[in-house]
């Protein structure tokens, strides 16, 4: 590979194009070693690439002007059509905007032969510029090709071993919107040795300000395979912190929308994340890739939008929530719903004019049994039963020589006697009322939970003081999921075309079911890390989770290369792996970043003591006692700890990029006060960082999925103690330790958890 580097670079997106410039065939005059400053400006090759960039920009401008000039007056028959068309045109104009911070292309492929041509024909090679969107010139020839087009795939997949007919792969680097660097790989040249990409390294380390950005210029081969896997199958991705799961999931949606636009436009797509601040953090990625229509929601929001839902304002104890989230609850609910059906003992007598028609009880029973056996939704059966009874009446009418038509059948189905019979045999069920009864009426619960839930579990479910009505009940999120399940037993939930489920390890079986019914006829991308499960019901195996989701055949893929966290930091965090997820392999960070980890103990006098080295975390205050209970916040050294934490924040702010101060939820008020006293403004998670406001104070419970260039982690033992059990506490700590891209400072006054103090044999650090 030859690199022509510049100063700090920023690789960016573009579109697909065959080169229409004067350059043809393979680039000659290969150079090695980086280029900087005036040299770079004088590089004739860069000059030519910049000319293609300018020409592509001009072409994009013309595409936009063409759309703006469209006159729709003659083609729209009425104002409704006109409004729809105008909105589509507006969207198209927006999509064709040339954004200065997202360069039009980020790569180039020179194929040895024309794409699709038989090599034996000796067809001349073709060149394509790869970017975020398609741009064509006035003749319709491509200037930039969409990264999702099949012809772009070798940009991500070609290798020395398998060049895929690519002679040259070129990556471009940008500085402040200017094309300033490139890196070449001559994939079919056996004399050139493969090197790691400096542009990839620069892109990962580019300081983070604002929301999450896309990785379209640097998607790695194993990530690309997941991104481009077909719409038909579901995929589950297990990957340690920072392996790009979220990025891959979002790019997969963009890819699927490109490859199956019509189908997904009809059926819809959805991204599910753990909380609002996480969703806010990722919400710009798809729009930056030109996809504006993808909805986002948390599981709570998803079930809250279901019919007949309740307002959540209660919180369950962990023990109760575990039972409510258990898959056995689905069986309890099913039994409870179906228990409303009673087999008829009376005939139905329909009077029409002077005639009476009698459907005997045994015949009614047959109809009811048939509906029960067919196992259709309870509500659908309730709606079908009157027609079935009416049909039985019609058969009798025909037998007696009448010739009734469909209108007669409808009229019979609406007959008061038929309605009364249906109400007695197959009454309507209100899902929320049903759940209310299960949680308040011990006998009703026992009847349907028999053989499924123990007496203790049933007790955990029952409200101590049963509420008087749906409105006064203190519904919890787990209750809302139960109501959602009951809703689906009554009437089928609408399924989308594709659902991406992020941080999936934290869902309960009942939550998986709720998500699964939203993609029952579509497919899913499930993303998660078993080691980061911090709910009491966190999943222990993907096979189980996928079965609850209704996608037992989903392919489980593993991502092991870590892009976010530097090697030193991930090695330190991985000391926790044997305790939190034995069997999982440590992430292999792609980045060496010496000095990225510092562990500081604060002694009783308040003096921070730096650990001698990143991997040797010996500290002066460590007593070796295991962590038990919450740290004593009244202890005299709390203020000293706060001061040391603030000092670490001030130090971190000297770097470019975002800073996250992560602390146990209980420590947030004290740290907020300390930051304010030191005149350090800070944001809450989800609030967008800007160049002027770069420090975020993050409760450990909200850190999942987020990342900061520099992280200060306050008092690890308090993070552990903030959770109901040690394993969950250590998992929460693992999450907090793995949010940093460039540097992590751990500050502690109490002893570190033993697990963190003990280097793990399997760890690289
Ligand atoms: N191929 C890549 N090129 C550049 N950056 C990448 C690449 N893959 C991932 N990253 C970056 O690494 C960081 C971590 O990615 P992401 O948040 O998707 O990881 P994750 O596996 O979801 O992490 P977590 O488990 O902590 O939620 C992000 O900044 C992302 O942009």
Shape: globular
Ligand inventory reads: adenosine-5'-triphosphate
Largest sheet: 8 strands, mixed
What fraction of the residues are assigned to beta strands by DSSP? 15-25%
Query: What is the total tally of β strands?
Result: 24
Give the helix/strand class.
alpha/beta
Distance between the termini: 30 Å
Task: Show unreliable segments.
Answer: 5-39, 612-636
- Output mean pLDDT: 86
How many domains? The number is 5
- In helices, the fraction of residues equals 25-40%
Gyration radius, in Å: 31 Å
Q: State the helix count.
A: 30
What does this structure look like?
- It contains 30 helices and 24 strands.
- It has 5 domains: 2-204, no CATH class; 221-306 and 493-562, P-loop containing nucleotide triphosphate hydrolases (Rossmann fold, 3-Layer(aba) Sandwich); 318-338 and 430-490, no CATH class; 348-425, no CATH class; 567-757, P-loop containing nucleotide triphosphate hydrolases (Rossmann fold, 3-Layer(aba) Sandwich), CATH 3.40.50.300.
- β21 (659-663), α27 and β22 form a beta-alpha-beta unit.
- α13 packs across α19 (442-449) and α13 (328-338) crosses α21.
- Strands 1, 2, 3, 4, 5, 6, 7 and 8 form an 8-stranded mixed sheet that branches. Strands 11-10-14-15-9-16 form a 6-stranded parallel sheet.
- The two termini are 30 Å apart.
- The longest helix is centred in the N-terminal third of the chain and has 25 residues, at 44-68.
- It is α/β, with parallel strands linked by helices.
- Adenosine-5'-triphosphate binds at residues 200, 203-204, 215, 218-220, 223, 239, 241-247, 529, 532, 563-564, 705, 707, 738.
- ATP binds at residues 239-246.
């Amino acid at each position: 590979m030859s690199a022509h580097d510049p100063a700090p670079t920023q690789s960016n997106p573009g579109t697909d194009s065959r080169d229409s410039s004067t350059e043809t065939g393979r680039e000659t005059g290969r150079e090695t070693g980086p280029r900087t400053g005036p040299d770079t400006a004088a590089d004739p090759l860069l000059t030519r690439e910049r000319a293609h960039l300018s020409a592509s920009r001009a072409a994009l401008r013309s595409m936009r002007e063409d759309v703006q000039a469209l006159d729709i007056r003659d083609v729209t028959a009425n104002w409704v059509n006109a409004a729809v068309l105008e909105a589509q045109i507006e969207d198209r104009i927006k999509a064709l905007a040339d954004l200065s911070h997202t360069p039009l292309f980020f790569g180039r492929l020179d194929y040895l032969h024309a794409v699709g041509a038989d090599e034996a024909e000796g067809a001349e090679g073709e060149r394509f510029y790869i970017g975020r969107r398609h741009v064509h010139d006035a003749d319709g020839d491509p200037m930039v090709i969409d990264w999702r087009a099949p012809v772009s795939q070798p940009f991500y997949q070609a290798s020395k071993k398998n060049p895929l007919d690519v002679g040259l792969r070129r990556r471009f680097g940008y500085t402040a919107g200017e094309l300033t660097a490139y890196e070449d790989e001559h994939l079919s040249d056996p004399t050139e040795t493969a090197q790691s990409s400096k542009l990839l390294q620069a892109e990962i380390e580019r300081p983070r300000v604002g929301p999450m950005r896309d990785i379209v210029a640097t998607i790695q081969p194993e990530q690309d395979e997941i991104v481009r896997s077909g719409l038909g199958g579901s995929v589950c991705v297990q990957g340690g912190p920072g392996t790009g799961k979220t990025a891959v999931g979002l790019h997969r949606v963009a890819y699927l929308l490109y490859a199956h636009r019509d189908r997904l436009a009809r059926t819809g797509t959805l991204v599910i994340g753990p909380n609002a601040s996480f969703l806010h953090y990722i919400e710009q990625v798809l729009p930056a890739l030109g996809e504006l229509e993808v909805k986002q929601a948390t599981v709570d929001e998803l079930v809250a939008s279901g019919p007949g839902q309740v307002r959540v304002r209660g919180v369950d104890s962990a023990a109760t929530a575990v039972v409510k989230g258990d898959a056995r609850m689905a069986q309890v609910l099913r039994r409870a719903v179906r228990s409303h059906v009673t087999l008829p003992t009376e005939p139905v007598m329909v009077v029409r004019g002077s005639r009476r028609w009698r459907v005997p009880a045994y015949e009614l029973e047959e109809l009811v049994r048939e509906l029960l056996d067919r196992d259709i939704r309870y509500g659908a059966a309730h709606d079908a039963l009157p027609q079935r009874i009416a049909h039985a009446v019609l058969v009798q009418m025909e037998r007696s020589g009448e010739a009734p038509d469909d209108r007669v059948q409808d009229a019979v189905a609406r007959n008061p006697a038929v309605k009364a019979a249906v109400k007695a045999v197959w009454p309507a069920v209100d899902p929320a009322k049903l759940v209310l009864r299960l949680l308040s009426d011990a006998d009703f619960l026992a009847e349907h939970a028999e053989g499924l839930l123990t007496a203790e579990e049933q007790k955990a479910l029952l409200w101590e003081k049963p509420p008087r009505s749906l409105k006064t009940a203190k519904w919890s999120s787990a209750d809302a999921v139960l109501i959602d399940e009951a809703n689906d037993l009554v009437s089928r939930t609408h399924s989308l075309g594709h659902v991406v489920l992020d941080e999936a390890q934290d869902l309960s079986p009942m939550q998986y079911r709720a998500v699964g019914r939203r993609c029952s006829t579509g497919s899913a991308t499930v993303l998660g890390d078993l080691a980061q499960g911090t709910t009491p019901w966190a999943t222990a195996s993907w096979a189980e989770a996928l079965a609850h989701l209704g996608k037992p055949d989903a392919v489980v893929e593993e991502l092991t290369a870590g892009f976010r966290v530097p090697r030193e930091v991930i090695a330190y965090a991985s000391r926790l792996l044997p305790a939190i997820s034995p069997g999982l392999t440590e992430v292999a960070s792609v980045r060496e970043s010496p000095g990225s980890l510092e562990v500081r103990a604060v002694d009783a006098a308040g003096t921070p003591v730096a650990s001698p080295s990143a991997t040797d975390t010996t500290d002066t205050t460590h007593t070796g006692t295991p962590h038990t209970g919450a740290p004593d916040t009244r202890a005299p050294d709390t203020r000293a700890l706060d001061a040391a934490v603030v000092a670490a924040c001030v130090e971190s702010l000297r770097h470019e990029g975002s800073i996250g101060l992560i602390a146990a939820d209980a420590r947030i008020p004290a740290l907020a006060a300390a930051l304010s006293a030191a005149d350090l403004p800070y944001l809450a998670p989800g609030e967008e960082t800007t160049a002027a406001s770069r420090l975020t104070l993050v409760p450990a419970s909200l850190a999942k999925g987020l990342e900061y260039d520099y992280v200060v982690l306050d008092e690890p033992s308090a993070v552990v103690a903030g959770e109901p059990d040690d394993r969950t506490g250590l998992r929460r700590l693992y999450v907090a330790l793995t949010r940093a891209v460039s540097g992590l400072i751990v500050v502690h006054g109490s002893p570190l958890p033993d697990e963190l103090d003990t280097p793990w044999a399997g760890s690289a650090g």
